[in-house]
Each structure stands twice: as structure tokens, then as C-alpha cells.
Amino acid sequence: MKPKVAFICVHNSCRSQMAEALGRLFASDVFDSYSAGTETKPQINQDAVRVIKEIYKINMNEAHTSKLLTDIPEVDIVIKMGCNVVCPFLPSKYTEDWGLEDPTGKNHEEFIKVAKTIEKKVKDLADRIKNNQIDLSES
Questions:
Q1: Residues 78, 87, 122, 129: which is the catalytic one?
Q2: Average pLDDT for runs of 10 along the chain of length 139
Q3: Closest by Cα among 78, 7, 79 to 48
């Protein structure tokens, strides 16, 4: 069975949404992607939507909504996007923090940079899961 990965940050409108989209695109054979936050926004960040559509041809407005931690199933792996405030807590077998800057309010290039970093990290995570470098056994 594929592990479930949750990408989390406070608002679930930008970085975690991009990570969910790119997780589905590049790693759906390895893990199931979810994203959530402790607060929701009425719509996801439209700059993030634009960049993901431009680079990866995915329209996040169609499949993505801002979700709370309680809206997603129990997960095996939690990836924190990098919260300058206290990151939300979600129980899991494995957690890591990607420490990504929030590009909200910044220029187009910043969004592209964050998207490319997330792509690299998603692929790396998939490789580590495939190679059993992440221990998901019940402790």
C-alpha cells in the first residue's frame, strides 16, 4: 500500500497546495498526496495557480481547495513547508520540515523558484520512500 503524505502549512493556500499538485504529478506511483493547514483561505493563491499551470500544465483551481488538518485522512508522512510561526502538528510515522520561504506577495520569479524547489524535493522524497530510506514501520 502506498504511504499517504501530507504537505502542511498554516493557510493551505500556496506552498502546500503546490506540493500536493507536484506530488500527484511526479510521485503518484510512490505516494498519495494531501495538503492541509490550521486555517483555510476562501481560495488558493492565484499566483501559485498561475505558475503551476504555466510550468506543469495543471489547473489547481479545478482540483484543489484550502483544507483543514481534520479534512484529510490519517497520513504516514508529514512534510512541513516551513512555518515562521509554529507549524501545525499532525500525527505521523515520519515528519520533516522543508523550510521553504512563503512566496505570497512576492514576484513571479519567486513563485517559480519555490515551485522548482518543491518539484526537486518531491522527487527526492519519492526516491527515499522507494529506496526504503524512510522508516514507516509501526514503532
A1: 87
A2: 93 94 98 94 93 96 90 96 74 94 94 98 98 84
A3: 7
Q: Is 83 a catalytic residue?
A: yes
9 is catalytic: yes
Question: Would residue 14 show up in a list of annotated catalytic residues for this protein?
Answer: no
Give the integer Cα–Cα distance in Å for 57 and 31: 21
Q: Which CATH number fits domain 4-130: 3.40.50.2300, 3.40.50.300, 3.40.190.10, 3.40.50.720?
A: 3.40.50.2300
Which of the residues 9, 60, 78, 126 is marked catalytic? 9
How many CB atoms neighbour CB 6 within 10 A?
A: 28
Question: H-helix or E-strand containing 23?
Answer: helix 15-27
Residue from 83, 100, 115, 126 carrying the catalytic annotation: 83
pTM value?
A: 0.94
CA 67 to CA 65: how far, in whole Å?
6
